[in-house]
Amino acid sequence: xxxxxxxxxxxxxxxxVLTACGSGSGTASGGSGSDIAKATSVTEAGGMDALVAAxxxxxxxxxxxxxxxxxxxxxxxxxxxxxxxxxxxxxxxxGSSQDEINAVKQLRGQDRAPDVLDLGQSFAIQASxxxxxxxxxxxxxxxxxxxxxxxxxxxxxxYGGYVSxxxxxxxxxxxxxxxADLLKPEYKDMVAINGNPTQAGAAFAAVYAAxxxxxxxxxxxxxxxxxxxxxxxxxNFVPVTGSPATVQSGQTPxxxxxxxxQESSVASQLPSWKVVIPSDASYAAYYSQAxxxxxPHPAAARLWEEFLYSVEGQNLWLNGSARPILLPDLVxxxxxxxxxxxxxxxxxxxxxxxxxxxQQAAAKTIVSQQWAAAVGG
Length: 377
Known about the structure:
Number of helices: 13
Radius of gyration: 20 Å
């Protein structure tokens, strides 16, 4: 299970191209004497040097639900630790967006509460409304499209991709190329998604994509739920959390997941694994970065965000086959990792559209109400 990545379109290839200061108290100060726990920019934190010094003094960063093989996070974490001498404690690596929100609420005021979050956008929007997130604008904030961030800086889109269909050619000799294909009898007991769409992740995006492929729209996700009801009735749906492990075991020869995770997580373990973007639905989106409003290590949290949105951090996501939000700027400025960029799965032609915040919220409600009855828990 991983987070719901709802809403921000990944712009298509041409257009997408425990120390006293920090732990628990949230009162770390920068070189200028500013309260870093309240800093909304690196300037308010006293400048980059002051932010780095304060973060090093805290010595720890608490992350949550960041699998090592998810968008290159294993390398990202190691690079940050080596660069700044800060230890990252990554809790519940295989959890969901909802698990992240639960941890923020349940561990409030504790040293082990998450400092930073990597959320599906619908979860980020709700967390912002609930006052759980700290406003912070990274140095490159102005380069990020308006539709890909909260105007106040409580969340910012980070990396993304397309909902895709992956399959094992050894077990699927006639590969599916569309959602419609997945209903064929030959795919009995083969098709999975990455968890429960009321809680996780890519699973919600799979339902949204299925809706678009079956007469639905961003205003009407119900056809997506109906599709999976039909998939289950046909005997094709495998009710497990699809993952590289279930692929390797042969339990889920077909997996509906983000294209970059099919490439970086599954294909890295099973080189013969093939990936296609369904011909009847192109659904793309970004995840969102955010800082816990009561982060026990507020300086390290802000330094982490600056790192992720730097040229180095953006290229590290790119090396995980994900499309970083600042990819167009990297290409324009000549700072992109050209080899990694060339390896990205081809993006569908045409303009990529995305749901509004209101449409996402309504869709999430419908799925929450209908999924269990249609498919099961």
